[in-house]
TrEMBL record:
Keywords: ATP-binding, Cell cycle, Cell division, Nucleotide-binding, Transferase, Ubl conjugation pathway. The keyword Cell cycle applies. Transmembrane segments: none annotated. Its EC number is 2.3.2.23. Residues 232-245 have a biased composition (Basic residues). This is E2 ubiquitin-conjugating enzyme. It comes from Periophthalmus magnuspinnatus. Belongs to the ubiquitin-conjugating enzyme family.
Amino acid sequence: MQSIACFCFPSQNSNVENLPPQVLRLVYKEVSALAADPPEGIKIYPSEEDITELHTSIEGPEGTPFAGGIFRMRLVLGKDFPAVPPKGYFLTKIFHPNVGHKGEICVNVLKRDWKAELGLRHVLLTIKCLLIHPNPESALNEEAGRLLLEDYAEYESRARLLTEIHAMGGPGGTSGTHQDPNDGPQPKKHAGDPTKRAGPSAAAAPAPLGNGASTANSSSNTNSSSNTSVAGKKKADKKRALRRL
């Protein structure tokens, strides 16, 4: 069973401090039950800091333009709850007659049909059913309501498009995109060839070494010839001295 931390640290807009302790205990009990056994296709994300704001996600029902999407929403319990119904908001953008441009949800159970004994589970199930059976007569999104009545194919196309963009495949509907191998900086041509990478000046570098070697050899040969001449002269002088004797 999923546990919920103590709600001793309310957020700035929290109503925890405004609700009577007995109401808080009832809310805590119901949220705990929802987290342990949520309705089919609905996940519950209780807040550890504020029990009066319940975050959930709803799977788009099959056979609707919302199928395959995951729609995040939240329920906010006011200071007069449960005498006054909670307020519901879609956090995921959706094209639906009963969802306003700011995500506000218009459904009878959150208005005139509300009863304190209905509970949060009933509210979540009603909102899920709203994805299957929109009510154009109480439309917050007038364009979606008009298309639903006059051109269902266009309504379905628009609703499906926004589902694919905002409720499928992560933020923006672009997750899993593979990077093209040609994108990004490419290695320079001949980068693996040391002679071409070094350039003409480096290619000509061995020439000075060759000239230096020739000069060294020439100098060595000159010194060798000079030494031979000196030795020959000494030998000739020695022969002349022996003849005089």
